[in-house]
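Predict structure. Chain length: 115.
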Amino acid sequence: MDTRKKGATGEDQAVDYLLSNGYTIITRNYQSRKGEIDCIAESPDGTLVFIEVKAGQGTSSGHPFYWINKSKQKKIVSMAKLYFYEHGILSKPCRFDAIAIVKGKIEHLKNAFLA
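Prediction complete.
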């Protein structure tokens, strides 16, 4: 399976997981020239959640959570700021989560990093 197809399959699994846990999906693959956020959702408590999804085998390349390096984090934060600006959101609680899918198992890391 190519990387794009594997990523899309992982994102589908993550969305199903989020929906089953009471999240509302706002958008998927939010993009600009600065980058992309895999999923933006609202948690059951009303928090806006920017989610990076990584799917992998967790072998020699390390656990998928480790693939979300500082550079990737900066891009996600920049995209979140753009989302707030474009949607006229002045104040709303938000956080940055990561979802890893390793060998079919979903791991959800809330507050994966801080902005």
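Summary: The first helix runs from residue 3 to 20.
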